Amino acid sequence: MDSNWLFNSSSVLTSCPGKRNHSAFRALGTSGATTAECSAISKERSAACAWGLSRLGAFRLRSIATKPNDKQARDCYNFSVARSIEVIETARLDPWDRALDVPARNGNYSITVSNSNLDRNPANYELIPADTIVIGGTYFERRITLEGIGASVVAVGREEKKDFRQSFTSRRLYATATGIVRFNDHHVELEFSLPFQTERVSLDGHEYPLAADFTAPLAVGLVRERPEKLGFARMTRPEKFADTARLTRLQMYDRNRIPVIFVHGLQDTPASWTPMINALYEDPDIRRRYQFWVFNYPSGYPYPYSAALFAKNSTG
User: Fold this and answer.
1) Which end of the chain is more exposed for a tag (fewer CB within 10 A), N or C?
2) Terminal CA-to-CA distance of the chain, rounded, Å?
3) How far apart are the C-alpha atoms of 112 and 94, rounded to whole Å?
4) By three-state DSSP, how is residue 154 classified?
């Protein structure tokens, strides 16, 4: 694919697709490259495809400076960033640990990733654009999102955490994050923010609310881990599942937020609290003041013993 199309697509800006409209992806470039086509070509050209999309989104973002309520411009930028992240994942590009050079008609672009938090190194996560995830079922009556700048993603840990008990995390992390792309001449920086810690971001000299999807990580975690399948088995044979008793936080620990611990009942698992936790995420004051934890345990144990397990796990 000729990378010359990256910066001569301004004529199609007005037809930039909205969220979840992947069939309209061909309108983004004169080459007509889709996400699948980008990932099928060489890594170098895949990178050119990805960052060309973000550059296109950046052009549209400029109009927000004069029209703060220009939803089309914002959606175009967010869509472009999401597709860039998607290409990085599917083409197995590696901008995480070193700069990635991308050829373009007016000179190469150097792409780096901003990473100020070693515990949240994006290289350690599978990044799934939230707009590719369809959510439904009995656990989710509605999807809790925030409109704003950036591409919402679900960050899934590539490896299980060995210290999950000591750190009160799940074996494999499922978190919400939001990707932002910044352009400074020929230097491109991809940055991820955590919506529970950051509500607004500065971009091109202007401040915007950060986009977020709080439901998608819950949904992906439930589908992949299937915790509800253990409810009956742990009630009838609790001793077989003794190692499943643990206290788990659902977000990064914040000493300024009050912990709320959800404890399930007989023949149940923390999955039963998903609808309530998802609904509570909709309230911004609750998100700012509280953090959610769950206590998971085999419900077939006598209540006094289960209470003792809770006390033990609460101290790490």
Assistant:
1) C
2) 54
3) 10
4) strand
CA distance 299 to 224: 22
Q: In which band, very low, low, confident or very high, does the pLDDT at 301 lie, cut at 50, 70 and 90?
A: very high
Cα 217 from Cα 32, distance rounded (Å) = 31
**What residues pair up with 125 in beta bridges, in sequence order?**
157
Dihedral over alpha carbons 48, 1, 83, 138 (to 10 degrees): -150
How many of the other CB atoms lie within 10 Å of CB of 250? Answer: 23
Whole-model pTM: value is 0.82
Residue pair 122/96 in contact (Cβ under 8 Å)? The answer is yes
Question: Mean pLDDT over all residues of the chain?
Answer: 81
Cβ atoms of residues 154 and 220 within 8 Å: yes
Binning the chain into helix, strand and coil, the percentages to the nearest 5 are 45, 20, 35
Type and span of the H or E element at 157: strand 151-157
User: Among candidates 198, 170, 171, 203, which has minimal Cα distance to 184?
Assistant: 203
Q: Please provide the DSSP assignment of 3-53 as one string.
A: GGGGGS-GGGGGG---TT-GGGGGGG-TT---HHHHHHS-HHHHHHHHHHH
Two structure tokens written together for 80: 């472009």
- In the block, residue with structure tokens 């009556």: 141
Distance CA 55, CA 254 (A): 35
Name the 3-class secondary structure at 242. helix
Mean pLDDT of 223-249: 93
Q: What is the 3-state secondary structure (H, E, C) of 201-229?
A: EEECCEEEEECEECHHHHHHHHHHHCHHH
**Strand 258-263 relative to strand 290-296, pairing:** parallel
Closest CA to 231 of 272, 274, 273: 272
Token reading at 282: 């909709």
Q: H-type helices in 41-178, by residue range?
A: 43-61, 71-90, 164-167
Tokens coding 144: 């809790």
- CA angle, corner 303, sides to 297 and 306, nearest 5? 35
What is the pLDDT at residue 122?
87
Q: Is pLDDT at 3 greater than 70 in this prediction?
A: no
